[in-house]
């Protein structure tokens, strides 16, 4: 519906944002909804129609929020300015609805079969695919944002480093940090090579990357869209002069602000900062690809930065989706979740696919071994399993936990023809009994409980098992019907709720415009959905934290924050 796709909230005050550096239009209604047709969604468009109608009738943005989003607690934002209310309404209207999981796709084997049979695979990659190359990711507990808080305490918010308004006022912090992610220092990972192999096999529809490290081009991937730009080109913020990315290399490595040779203006790499438009090419490609795609794979992304985060929600409901990431994402329902280090997971998939994919792994290992012998490498290449991992069940995983508790071990090379019976009770006959026996640790009166407390020596709370601490490099565990956990996963298993839990005590916020220190003027400059912006709004983040705290059991440590995924069937 072209008329609807061009609608926006007319009553919002207009804000002007000078942008001579990029030539992009910076004047837009503060709560305008993007006119890019690929983002249209029936539910979103219905809500937009209602909002526009209510505005035409004279309703305030707060009244509209009450009408359209009755579950949202408006009492906590009632005292904010009308500009802030418009910004909040815009964010709520632009949020994609929760995707419904397809029941036919669940396991690691299902994922392998999808890679074998699908012809138009759309892969969305984030910083997680480059971590093994030595490039830090952004939002993990040891990521860029967590480090920025300590290294640059004067930043109003860690994401200000990549905010266009902050850069214009003070580019020094960006140049102090840019050398850590500047291209030319890193070697493409197994994940990059896997995507190239899919392209060579004629199965890659497109690789949408949120990364700016240019490793896709270094790998030779042709069908790639650099959603957030890259260091490959530069633009002077004063005269607009365009230069090759390597022009600023010396300045970046010296942590010095690069200056234009023509006018002495500050040079900005052609990276899409928060608050900038992604450009027409991105939107054109998504519009074309959403019709053709038959499989979506998200690798190493938190899906928190829009509009890229909306891509999985714009395709047909029957298109299966796979998440390969260190942690489960509470705002994204993938059909199959493979959790752990991306490269480790991709290796197992390649071994299962065989042929050129397995040969690629062998070739990569040889290259990296030769490189390691010739010279000290900057990249961090963790020890990886050279063979396909043994997939174990949830019960087998708990078996390992009890053996750990009892100080016994099972040879990794020994065929698992007959699983040893776990025993902390004379009456235990089956692995199912063992599962329930471990759960009994919450009862202080149970003698077995007192013994099973010792099982949890590597956990953060007496009821949480750190899964990856219990796994060696040779194993992965099918912890639920649709979740398989590999080494490196940032999650734990809750014995009491029988759920996988995701820790959120590392840096989870993203988007300088949502900083607590932002003024109402800053809040009123709400970015349109077609610009790069965070999924976490200043109010929505508080709302999620509130919901998360309501879900936690009273028996939990108050200082430990985690989010729950879907419940696990003990009999699966």
UniProtKB/TrEMBL annotation:
Protein residues bound to Zn(2+): 236, 239, 260, 263
Q: What superkingdom does the record give? A: Eukaryota
Give every Deacetylase sirtuin-type domain span.
101-374
Q: Which InterPro entries match?
A: DHS-like_NAD/FAD-binding_dom, NAD-dep_sirtuin_deacylases, Sirtuin, Sirtuin_cat_small_dom_sf, Ssirtuin_cat_dom
Q: Record's PROSITE patterns? A: SIRTUIN
The alphabetized UniProt keywords are: Metal-binding, NAD, Nucleus, Transferase, Zinc
Residue numbers annotated as active site: 228
Cofactor(s) this protein cannot do without: Zn(2+)
The protein in question is named: NAD-dependent protein deacetylase sir-2.1
**EC number, UniProt record:** 2.3.1.286
A Gene Ontology term for the protein's cellular component: rDNA heterochromatin
Q: Where is the composition biased (Polar residues)?
A: 28-40
